[in-house]
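User: Can you help me understand a structure? I only have the sequence.
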Amino acid sequence: MTDSPFWLAIGAFIVSPGFGALAAVLAAFLAYWGIGRQLRGERALAQEKASDDRATALEGDRRRRWWTVLTWLWENRDDLGEVELMKGLIALKSTGLTAEQATMLQVVTEAAALNQTVRPQAVPEEGLVPAERTPDRDSPSDTPSDAARAASKQAGELILELEAMKGSLPHGL
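Assistant: Let's start by predicting it. Here is the structure, written out as tokens:
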């Protein structure tokens, strides 16, 4: 069988320069395919990382805006009045809270309902700073108005909703 013309032709082709050229073309194709596959994988990873970075930046911006609104509401609570303050706090509650935001909103809502002065501090990147407590405001000698009673009722409802929501949130969110 080794003397057949087919095997002699194959043997001659293997030792010829044509086989070397074919092997070089095949090796180039395999390298091109492998590098292309690697580049597609790296491009997909880069796009995924960029998407994650955008999502992280958007979440950070959302948290900063939430904190800015909460701070503004609290700093302007006397100008807003109890009803408008409660409306603002209720609006903040509807923004999809993290556990820390739910806790802070509950603290501010309770303070507003109890007519205390609790001033939120700036939030560092690592999380919330406990609120600074100052002495109670002078309690009004007048009886509460209907608007104040309604705001107090809304605050109580908001506190109950926040406590229920806080228990259902996963830890660290």
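Now, to help you interpret it: Residues 60-168 form one domain. The first strand starts at residue 118 and ends at 119. Let me know which part you'd like to focus on.
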